Amino acid sequence: MFVDVVAVTGKDEGDLDAVVVETTAYVSVKCDVCGKDVNRWISRLNQSKHTYCSKECRSLDLTRSPNAVCPVCQKQFHVKPSRLNSTSTVCCSRECMGIYQRKQTEFVCKRCGKTFLLRPSQIEQGKGSYCSRECQLSDYSSVGNPNWKHGFSGHTGYYRSLRKELTSDLSKEQWEQILEHFEYRCAYCGKSEAEAGVLHKEHVIPASRGGGLTFSNIVPSCPTCNSKKHDKTPSEAGMFFIKPVHFINE
Question: Is 22 a member of any domain?
Answer without folding.
Answer: yes
